[in-house]
Automatic annotation (TrEMBL):
This is ABC transporter ATP-binding protein. Residues 12-252 form the ABC transporter domain. Keywords: ATP-binding, Nucleotide-binding, Transport. PROSITE patterns: ABC_TRANSPORTER_1, ABC_TRANSPORTER_2. It comes from the Bacteria. It holds the Pfam family ABC_tran. InterPro entries: AAA+_ATPase (IPR003593), ABC_transporter-like_ATP-bd (IPR003439), ABC_transporter-like_CS (IPR017871), ABC_transpr_LolD-like (IPR015854), MacB-like_ATP-bd (IPR017911), P-loop_NTPase (IPR027417). GO terms for molecular function: ATP binding.
Length: 254
């Protein structure tokens, strides 16, 4: 297969990606010959049975983990083989993260948490970025909470702060790992609505790992993994259609 080295429509891409853990008989194949791109301006869900390689794929695409084989690009920039310092800089500048456990800094208030990516990058937000952050705080219903610390907020509010932090720097792509996993279903739906509206209103590109068919039904595209391979690549689907694919994959993988 020809490896394309440029594609303006993709914000992140991997080619012939393999990831192995351990040696000899104990070798585990987490990813096996995966070639896939995340499309710009789309909300992509990554689904699959437990152990199918979802988190590994996301971590390699986000430069949090390195592949055993194959190549990785962020936009047009190949990141395969970059060292830790270069990857850290690239993540800070070009990638946003939203995690199941929110990952806010407990000693910083809401504004401090949202400004953290700028501070880590050694830059203060410009006046325009500051205005954008204020607008984000208002849109996410956090304007009365800016001086609160994470432990003074509900789970849903904490995840909204994490989303505001991820959106504040206008990253090329946001990687979300089970963003609704720790939330009740109503709060989870609100969070998904916020991610969806970032795609609709700002063209934000988002890739989300999830187990939840309802969460995945908010996506424009759903990639299904099983045993470390991409086994299906669908446009938007209803929750019941997603559940039925997942049931089939769980049977195959088991
Ligand atoms: N650090 C590691 N050492 C050894 N094996 C690992 C490691 N990380 C992941 N694996 C294995 O790689 C495979 C893929 O794991 P991964 O976490 O990517 O799956 P997943 O689809 O995200 O699973 P889950 O839905 O349960 O979180 C699994 O078999 C897992 O046990």
């Amino acid at each position: 297969m020809e490896i394309q080295t440029s594609d303006m429509g993709l914000v992140a891409r991997v080619a012939q990606l393999g990831k192995y853990y351990g040696d000899g008989e104990r070798r585990v194949t987490a990813l096996d010959d995966v070639s896939i791109g995340i499309r710009r301006g789309q909300f992509t869900a990554i689904m699959g049975p437990s152990g199918s390689g979802k988190s590994t794929l996301m971590h390699v695409m986000a430069g949090l983990d390195t592949p055993s084989e194959g190549r990785v690009w962020l936009g047009d920039d190949e990141i395969t083989g970059l060292g830790d310092a270069a990857l850290t800089k690239l993540r800070r500048r070009r990638i946003g993260f939203v995690f199941q456990a929110f990952n806010l800094i407990p000693t910083l208030d809401v504004r401090g948490n949202i400004l953290l990516p700028f501070q880590l990058d050694g830059s203060a937000p410009t006046a325009e970025e500051q205005r954008r952050i204020d607008a984000l705080l208002a849109r996410l219903g956090l304007q009365d909470r800016v001086r609160h610390r994470p432990h003074e907020l509900s789970g849903g509010q904490q995840q909204r702060v994490a989303i505001a932090r991820a959106l504040a720097t206008r990253p090329d792509v946001i990687f979300a790992d089970e963003p609704t996993g720790a939330l009740d279903s109503r709060t989870g739906r609100e969070v998904l609505g916020l991610l969806r509206s970032a795609v609709e209103t700002s063209g934000q590109s988002i890739a989300m790992v999830t187990h939840d068919p309802i969460a995945a039904s908010h996506a424009d595209r759903i990639l299904f993994l099983a045993d470390g391979r991409i086994v299906a690549d669908h446009g938007a689907m209803r929750p019941e259609e997603i559940s039925s694919v997942m049931l089939q994959l769980e049977r195959v993988q088991a």
